[in-house]
């Protein structure tokens, strides 16, 4: 005789044995009868953060001023005038932070190096103390069994370079090439996974066009287009540096915050519309990298504002990469266009669900469609979600815990879409949650909390939130729980 729970467990085991990975692994809890088929054995689960947002020590041991150190001191630019001076004090507490990360079972950490810690004025004298800091940090990660995934540039441009034109100038490209050579050579023994740039659109369009991010300039579209051309060149130098100096087994790619869309219905007509929208909106970064030139339809739209390209630029920009990182938070709904248009974007109604970040509308299918379209449109064979997460204000510690069920739901729903993408054959190989710990969220300062670990900025006490425990269970079981 079999009672119903034994029957269910047997049934689940049968399903697990026929899962795409075929090895019968599955998370089965016969008490609660929870089940989902596992992620592939080599799927990377990680967490992410970035140097300027957590390190603090903004002027310690010879570090130079970054554009964010300057911007945050300008009245009205950052919420409450918050500075990066102390942040999570990770500069002094990294060892304990890695112990905490390891205790959650997280073995992969995406971090960035602070360019102004290494070249305080961008391209002048090298600051040995900066390199020494990261050497100690990588040694600590190794002791705790955590693999580094290192981003070369996550927005903290040395202010001295901004004073010479910043991203509008090729001086920055040359300086970046030297910085990339230096750090890849220095850490080739410690780091095998490299990411060149984080979110080109944010530190060009938003920083030099909208002026909401440092350095807060409002330039013409032609100038903005030139800034992202220079950023693409730096990406190319990052790839070149890793190929030249990264040593055996080193891999490299870009992290892009591509424009993401979701077909309103998953029917051929709406999917075709989504694809057309995707190709148009991503033409100037991903499209250009993959085509080896700016696509004709982009050039037609840009007209006289198109970037000035010099001979050899695209040899660098289109160097082959090993993977593509995608920062995916939200998406635009698209459907088949009326009156013969290729697509139509559907505006979100006022009461559509969102996090406290006003731009962060909650649309979990963004994960599925961003990864699927990136693979289909550009032929990528190795994709990583290098950021995904949600920001909320006021997440107090209650009886030793932050009961952030909203983040747990966000995480679970987005992971399900990652799982669906893999099941449909999308080459998605990893997921990095933004963020390990509450941190300096740029112009939102410390008000917005994205961490799965709570940071009390007054005492620097860390408290894992409910979502951290949840993610630890996912990582441990390698499946959605
Ligand atoms: C991404 C950045 C991260 C992080 C995250 C949260 O764009 O790469 O550094 O900040 O967004 O967004 P925000 O701080 O803009 O709310």
From TrEMBL:
<dbReference type="GO" id="GO:0030245">
    <property type="term" value="P:cellulose catabolic process"/>
</dbReference>
<keyword id="KW-0119">Carbohydrate metabolism</keyword>
<feature type="binding site">
    <location>
        <position position="329"/>
    </location>
    <ligand>
        <name>substrate</name>
    </ligand>
</feature>
<feature type="binding site">
    <location>
        <position position="53"/>
    </location>
    <ligand>
        <name>substrate</name>
    </ligand>
</feature>
<feature type="binding site">
    <location>
        <position position="198"/>
    </location>
    <ligand>
        <name>substrate</name>
    </ligand>
</feature>
<keyword id="KW-0624">Polysaccharide degradation</keyword>
<feature type="binding site">
    <location>
        <position position="154"/>
    </location>
    <ligand>
        <name>substrate</name>
    </ligand>
</feature>
<feature type="binding site">
    <location>
        <position position="434"/>
    </location>
    <ligand>
        <name>substrate</name>
    </ligand>
</feature>
<comment type="similarity">
    <text>Belongs to the glycosyl hydrolase 1 family.</text>
</comment>
<feature type="binding site">
    <location>
        <begin position="441"/>
        <end position="442"/>
    </location>
    <ligand>
        <name>substrate</name>
    </ligand>
</feature>
<keyword id="KW-0136">Cellulose degradation</keyword>
<dbReference type="GO" id="GO:0008422">
    <property type="term" value="F:beta-glucosidase activity"/>
</dbReference>
<dbReference type="InterPro" id="IPR017736">
    <property type="entry name" value="Glyco_hydro_1_beta-glucosidase"/>
</dbReference>
<feature type="active site" description="Proton donor">
    <location>
        <position position="199"/>
    </location>
</feature>
<dbReference type="InterPro" id="IPR017853">
    <property type="entry name" value="GH"/>
</dbReference>
<keyword id="KW-0378">Hydrolase</keyword>
<dbReference type="GO" id="GO:0005829">
    <property type="term" value="C:cytosol"/>
</dbReference>
<keyword id="KW-0326">Glycosidase</keyword>
<protein>
    <recommendedName>
        <fullName>Beta-glucosidase</fullName>
        <ecNumber>3.2.1.21</ecNumber>
    </recommendedName>
</protein>
<dbReference type="InterPro" id="IPR001360">
    <property type="entry name" value="Glyco_hydro_1"/>
</dbReference>
<feature type="active site" description="Nucleophile">
    <location>
        <position position="387"/>
    </location>
</feature>
<dbReference type="Pfam" id="PF00232">
    <property type="entry name" value="Glyco_hydro_1"/>
</dbReference>
